[in-house]
């Protein structure tokens, strides 16, 4: 077995989009499965706690990590198959998500355009089941390859095996510390139809005078909307939407609507309602406010930001204060999207 070139006491500040200063006891870039096999057989590294890191865009570091950070750096994307209904494209886990989406659009393949400009890596996309503007990864997901640290082998999982939920999957639950995603394959429809169910998308298309949009048009519109609403992590530390939009029973939604006529909610297929977390936070007066260096973005209350030098614990304190206010005013508990480490 070859020597493993890991680094000790490695700063993670540049590897998390919040820009939180924290270090890892050990750090190792991962380009292929052989490195994971070597880690599994190494008597020192195999005993350490593991943190798998992609783009660091769904992560809140609350302390130094007392273990091994495996940073997925693998690259590669290709068309791998097609049938009567779909064209199948595969990308390595370390590929940048937005870059991958733009590559599919450059090829004239629609299906992922509503997910443009979401930060992070391809490997993290199914773990979080990322979603935006009416589309989630599960809607286009075909399969993935993962390394199983317990069995020491690679496995292939289809859509059903991933147990996708709202911003959730089996990889955030019972397989959180067991599996490392290596690559992901998506099924992109040959008979593409524009998903324009969100008012923001329709309004932006109308402003551009586009009545019959292409997949590229939708992608460009989503990029424009996200650019206006969300801060660039390169300019101000953030992880995008910090809280999930809470889902409540119809009775609770109706009760809230009777008290708050401007309540923003969306009917779900099962009869429940998804509430706009950003609206709830805004009504509690948090938009643009700060606790120390941790703040709420002034253009979108759903986004928490590091205004410079905030610690992970300061970000947690801000999140907890927001949760307390929303629960007191609306009786709704907001659930964070990022993983706290």
Which labels suit this protein?
4-stranded mixed β-sheet; 341 residues; alpha+beta; 5-stranded antiparallel β-sheet
Q: What does the model show?
A:
By secondary structure, the chain is of the alpha+beta class. The chain is built from eight helices and 20 strands. It is globular and about 65 Å long. The protein starts with 6 loop residues before the first strand and ends with a strand. The mean pLDDT is 94.
Break the fold down into its secondary structure elements and pairings.
Elements: E1 7-11, E2 23-30, H1 33-41, E3 50-53, E4 59-60, E5 65-72, E6 77-82, E7 86-92, H2 97-106, H3 124-128, E8 131-132, E9 135-136, E10 141-148, E11 153-158, E12 179-189, H4 199-207, H5 215-229, E13 237-241, E14 247-248, H6 250-259, E15 265-267, E16 273-275, H7 277-283, E17 290-291, E18 294-296, E19 303-306, H8 312-330, E20 339-340
Parallel strand pairs: 2-5, 3-5, 4-20
Antiparallel strand pairs: 1-2, 6-7, 7-12, 8-9, 10-11, 10-12, 13-19, 14-16, 15-16, 17-18, 18-19
Helix pairs in contact: 4-5
> Which geometry do the CA atoms define?
globular
Distance between the termini: 31 Å
Total strands: the figure is 20
Taking all Cα atoms into account, the compactness measure Rg is 21 Å
Instruction: Please indicate the percent range of residues in DSSP E strands (runs of 2 or more).
Output: 25-35%
Largest sheet: 5 strands, antiparallel
Low-confidence stretches: none
User: Which structural category fits the helices and strands?
Assistant: alpha+beta
Helix content: 10-25%
Helix and strand succession?
EEHEEEEEHHEEEEEHHEEHEEHEEEHE
Q: What is the spatial order of strands in the main beta sheet?
A: 6-7-12-10-11
Mean pLDDT: 94
Helix run count: 8
